[in-house]
Amino acid sequence: MLVPLTRIQKLIGQRMLQSKQSKPCFYLEAKADVTELMALRPKLRKSFGVRITTNAFYIHILGMAAQKYPLVVGRLEDDSIIIAERINVGFAVNAPQGLVVPVVKDAADKTLPEIGREETLLTDKARDNKLTLEEIEGETIALSNLGAYSIDSFVGIIPPPASTILSVGNIIPTAVCRDGKIKARKVVSLSVAADRRIVGEIYAAEFLNYIKDRLQNPQQVI
Predict the structure, then answer these.
(1) Domain assignments of the chain as residue spans, ordered by start
(2) 150, 167, 170: which is closest to 158 by C-alpha?
(3) CATH no. for 7-221
């Protein structure tokens, strides 16, 4: 039986092949305790009057981290690294027409409620096939979250415009030893893939640890 590829499947396949063939990547993984973050979300909805998803937190913190570690939004041109002027976070959405990647522009300059509203709007438009060209262009760093599909951890493929992608898994109840006692905590796996020509391992480790620290201390990012 032959299953013809859709136009979107062909495009994604071509872009991912281009990325795998042209980017010498390395991969890092860490786990973050997001117990406090998950407890805070309902309170923020009441305070801000807007639904704050875990994706909104990831986009917000990813934007902050890219501002502090700008090489993650760099691109190679001839013998130089060009740092993007804007931190635009593309996040993958599974829509009826296939995988689409809306982009939150200038994520580092927006508040958490602003990102919450925009992330919800873009996700709804993606699922209704109503995204404009402007809303899917300009990505300088990528986020892929498969937590909703019960995937514990994975490593995404960096999209061609970017040099770094953060992949996020499922939030899992986990037994953690703290102060000599076993406690039930909510833990999420974070993976970073980065283009080694632009980002070094230590730099990427600091970048990932910054994200981890902010997720574990969500009051710092509100």
Answers:
(1) 7-221
(2) 167
(3) 3.30.559.10
∠ Cα 114 117 122 (to 5°): 120
Residues 59 and 88 sit within 8 Å (Cβ to Cβ) = no
pLDDT at 7: 81
Name the DSSP class of 138. -
Task: Give the distance from CA 109 to its chain's centroid.
Answer: 16
Helix or strand or coil: residue 162? coil
Q: Is the dihedral of CA 196, 67, 135, 59 positive or negative?
A: positive
* Helix or strand run (H / E) with residue 168: strand 164-178
Check residue 134 and report its DSSP letter: G
End-to-end CA distance of the chain: 52
Q: What is the pTM of this model?
A: 0.94
Beta bridge partners of 95: 98
Confidence at 12, pLDDT banded by 50, 70, 90: confident
- What band does 99 get if pLDDT is binned at 50, 70 and 90? confident
The Cα–Cα gap between 214 and 65 comes to: 9
The two tokens of residue 201 are: 């391992």
DSSP calls for 120-131: HHHHHHHHTT--
Paired tokens of 23 = 């980017």
